[in-house]
Amino acid sequence: MSFESLGLSPALLRALADQGYTTPTPIQLQAIPLALDGGDLLAGAQTGTGKTAAFALPLLQRLAAQTPARGPRRPRALVLAPTRELALQVHENLRAYARHLSIHATAIFGGAGMGPQLDQLRRGVDVVVATPGRLIDHLDRRSVDLSGVEVLVLDEADRMLDMGFLPAIRRILGTLPKQRQTMLFSATFEARIKDLAQQFMRNPREVQVAPNNTIASTVTHRVHPVDAERKRDLLIHLLSVDTRRQTLVFSRTKHGADRLTKQIADAGINAVAIHGNKTQGARTRALKDFKTGRATVLVATDIAARGLDIDQLPVVINFDLPMVAEDYVHRIGRTGRAGAEGLALSLVADAEVSLLRAIQRLLGKNVDVEEVPGFTPKRTLRMGNDRPDNVRPAGNRAPTKHARRGHPARNAGAQPHAGPKKHGTRDAPAADPPARLTGDTRAAGVLSSPHALRGGRCAR
After folding, report:
1. Are residues 316 and 350 in the same domain?
2. Looking at the record, which segments are called Disordered (predicted)?
3. 158 contacts 122 by C-beta, under 8 angstroms
4. Are residues 233 and 172 in the same domain?
């Protein structure tokens, strides 16, 4: 099916064509017609499935079809997002889709100066994309009037609940008209999401494009056992195999991310870090450097697990396993997108075996454990009921189709080159958070491999 078949206006179809988007993703096929009907919508969609366009296109079509009220322009649509990066991404996508419409959007979030945000709001906007904490700041200042909001979107609602935003969301809801369209997008439909929906939605239609905690089948998962004190050396060894390949490395802590970044740079590999202690300017520069290829390694805490749009990133490395198994899904969601193949590596010390077991239970399968020559740990990982042959030397792997395509990271013996709260803001920590239309990386200016943006695209 094409976007034309979904009932979108010519102006939106033209904007999609401008960006080379032709084929809707499953969430867009299901959600857009329902959203265009004007009713409330509860949509289950993982990051990278095109959910931004699934709500942005109907939202823009509704606003364009209705004449705004007389008087100063005030927001007619509100999108709430859990992190600054996601708010920026949604805002840039909205601007790209609205390029042939007279609709103005702005993003307001913590970690940035209030002045420019106040100026934008005073000039008048149709759509506000905001993080809850900073939006509360503006409500307290009486610098934003939400009484004219016709459409409310909660993007990644489960993440906002994880981050403790429920009181802020309830307060914001109290300022909105009761007669409105509400769309809630969440990776999961667990009980608390259902409870939240019942509190402020009216008979929402439901769509779910994939089972909860689904990871793309094109992702290869692999564990490299290693002694804790040798993790850094193994990481640099893996990264050194091909220093040109973009790699996202996850560290559990902010200080650990900074330390790793320095150690990787000292080894002659360009690396940058992003985490909650970085200023918004530093985070923006780091993302730009990674996108343009000036840095080939991005070391991040879980702030990057959601909200950052990385198109066809080839490799994700878990330097530290996440404490919560579900966060593994969010981290690995950065690779293997839109049918592309991806590689997820985890460096696991003996003390992390329980975390690995939890991840395997979540995935419903064992993850291949392969020892890297020269980095064999002193103790074999105790995987409980895993098969004894689950652990094998990396050099014993048969070459895969990736190797035949010239990907050294997937060779038999080779390895790949492998929110945060800012003082003075009220945004909760962005827990160190898809051509088909899965979030416009070019418009958003967010993570994207220069080599991954070639060829056809579908919308985000």
Report:
1. yes
2. 376-460
3. no
4. no
What is the Cα–Cα distance from 342 to 398, expressed in whole angstroms? 18
Question: Phi/psi zone of residue 165: left (φ > 0), alpha (ψ -120 to 50 degrees), beta?
Answer: alpha
If you count DSSP H runs as helices and E runs as strands, how many of each does the chain have, helices first?
16, 15
Which residue has tokens 């007669």? 179
Three-state DSSP class for 269? coil
Residue 459 lies in a domain: no
Amino acid sitting at position 442: R
290-294: which pairs have CB atoms within 8 A and are 24 or more residues apart? 290/246, 290/447, 291/445, 291/446, 291/447, 291/448, 291/449, 291/450, 292/450, 293/246, 293/449, 293/450, 294/270
Phi, psi of 211 (to 5 degrees): -60, 155
Q: What is the pTM of this model?
A: 0.60
332 lies in some domain: yes
Domain count, the chain: 2
Q: In a structure prediction context, what are the per-residue pLDDT tens digits for the chain, which is 460 residues long?
A: 789 899 999 999 999 998 888 889 899 999 999 999 999 999 988 766 788 999 999 999 999 998 776 767 899 999 999 988 889 889 999 999 999 999 999 999 988 889 999 999 999 999 999 999 999 999 999 999 999 999 999 998 888 887 889 999 999 999 999 999 999 998 778 788 888 888 899 999 999 886 555 566 678 899 999 999 999 999 999 999 888 888 999 998 889 999 999 999 999 999 999 887 887 788 888 888 988 889 999 999 886 555 566 666 889 999 999 887 878 887 887 776 555 678 889 999 999 998 999 888 888 888 889 999 999 998 887 765 444 344 455 544 433 333 333 333 333 333 333 333 333 444 443 333 333 444 333 333 332 333 332 333 446 5
Strand, coil or helix: what is 131?
A: coil
Give the integer Cα–Cα distance in Å for 32 and 42.
12
Kindly give the pairing relationship between strand 247-250 and strand 77-80: unpaired
Name the residue type at position 438: T
Query: Are 359 and 317 found together in one domain?
Result: yes
In a domain, 250, yes or no: yes
Q: Containing H/E element for 348?
A: strand 342-348
Tell me: do 309 and 197 sit in the same domain: no
* CB neighbourhood size of 5 (10 A): 11
* Structural domain range at position 19: 3-208
User: Cα 39 to the chain's mean position, in Å?
Assistant: 26
Q: How far apart are CA 169 and CA 175, in angstroms?
A: 10
Beta carbons of 228 and 197 less than 8 angstroms apart:
no
CATH at 244: 3.40.50.300
